[in-house]
């Protein structure tokens, strides 16, 4: 009698295939991007000694067939970024015969020193001095034409680039992308700095076109017209303003228009002829988007496989909610709770901006405090709602406590493996192309520190999202409940910031709202101007961050709760991944 063949487990097979495919697609996409990106380009990692002794990491890009001396440019990124962010510009310049020194600012991507924005632009150990050290380094290289050295800066880097152009007259040209400046504008005129190109995105909120136009007016005595060359590039008095259609502050360095304008301006000012182009930067932007999508698939597959293993071993305890309510009331409750969540997130945002700027150098990192304060103030706003509901229906708290006692070992193992998958996928997809997610010991230490700060308020947030919303969705099919939860959670995260981004384009409306905070004593009058100035920037930054990273959280944390019914497990996953993404991109102070 023949033995019956075991049935093919289609779900298991599908999960394994999807996991392998997502990893292979991420690898092949990254390999393709890097192959195209570095075609005809050779790179070299160098270390530059800052004026205060800090070791600064930089990457040299030059043509593969380079011989003799080459004109050179210093390329500098924005806050929380790295030299990888500027790869599209750096490699295209190199293919056109320019030696590029792409600097990692102090406190960024392996560079020492810590970011310091304050102080004299020459004497203080700040980002401007790193450019002077880079200039000295280039002037000492045997393969550099010392009379042809320019600078290109993006966002925060554009201000440092402008300072270098003002304080070092031999720097020519100066390119500002997403231009940022302060006192420097008073020193700009028709001859200083040499050959100034200003590029700004049409939809930029952080450094809007009006900001760039004001600088351009100073540089041309209000006689220049956008898109037209003012002055004489051969005489060093060239000026040009380019407004890139459809681009914003974050996408502008990956637009074809910005790269072409930059390369053509540099070659024009160096007298090196016409530019040729090889890479469409849209590829790099597409890679970034696909990396997030592939990461979600890979993490879900891993979570499913680990959970399935523990279920087969009988290690996962089935826990059902004892707090049941009628379908109609459940729908009304979810709608009300969702509206309250959005309002809580919306109305606490000005406090996030206020507190974030008051402690700008908070705990040795820059920028992460906004995310920490977001979860903190949101938790404080949600707590009264939770307490009221628990007082009305006490079994809600009892349910949560009972669930918290279950499934810790398999849940924690799943979370750690899921986080490791996120780490691997982000690195194979993005590191070396458009970002750097490789973690140093310092960044790992920072990640665990951020994790400890974020975990308590995230726990409150998870209680609200899981016990009060996900558990109450009145559908029987698990996949439908999970889908509704993911959509709801993503909307709750993103909509409040989208709302503020819209208000940032209406200063009078935003100011009217902020005056109510002053009247209530939540924001001091002396801090009002600061909050007004940086409201749009911070709303824009958090909106971008939550648009990408929150999709991963919404999908995976919702799935983990479905499997383990433990908000402690989902809180740890969320806090760990939030801390990782912050530690990977934050500037160390």
From TrEMBL:
<dbReference type="InterPro" id="IPR029058">
    <property type="entry name" value="AB_hydrolase_fold"/>
</dbReference>
<feature type="transmembrane region" description="Helical">
    <location>
        <begin position="328"/>
        <end position="352"/>
    </location>
</feature>
<feature type="transmembrane region" description="Helical">
    <location>
        <begin position="372"/>
        <end position="392"/>
    </location>
</feature>
<feature type="domain" description="Serine aminopeptidase S33">
    <location>
        <begin position="72"/>
        <end position="184"/>
    </location>
</feature>
<feature type="transmembrane region" description="Helical">
    <location>
        <begin position="282"/>
        <end position="307"/>
    </location>
</feature>
<dbReference type="InterPro" id="IPR050261">
    <property type="entry name" value="FrsA_esterase"/>
</dbReference>
<feature type="transmembrane region" description="Helical">
    <location>
        <begin position="446"/>
        <end position="466"/>
    </location>
</feature>
<keyword id="KW-0472">Membrane</keyword>
<dbReference type="GO" id="GO:0016788">
    <property type="term" value="F:hydrolase activity, acting on ester bonds"/>
</dbReference>
<keyword id="KW-0378">Hydrolase</keyword>
<keyword id="KW-0812">Transmembrane</keyword>
<feature type="transmembrane region" description="Helical">
    <location>
        <begin position="478"/>
        <end position="501"/>
    </location>
</feature>
<feature type="transmembrane region" description="Helical">
    <location>
        <begin position="408"/>
        <end position="426"/>
    </location>
</feature>
<feature type="transmembrane region" description="Helical">
    <location>
        <begin position="542"/>
        <end position="561"/>
    </location>
</feature>
<protein>
    <recommendedName>
        <fullName>Serine aminopeptidase S33 domain-containing protein</fullName>
    </recommendedName>
</protein>
<feature type="transmembrane region" description="Helical">
    <location>
        <begin position="568"/>
        <end position="588"/>
    </location>
</feature>
<dbReference type="InterPro" id="IPR022742">
    <property type="entry name" value="Hydrolase_4"/>
</dbReference>
<keyword id="KW-1133">Transmembrane helix</keyword>
<dbReference type="Pfam" id="PF12146">
    <property type="entry name" value="Hydrolase_4"/>
</dbReference>
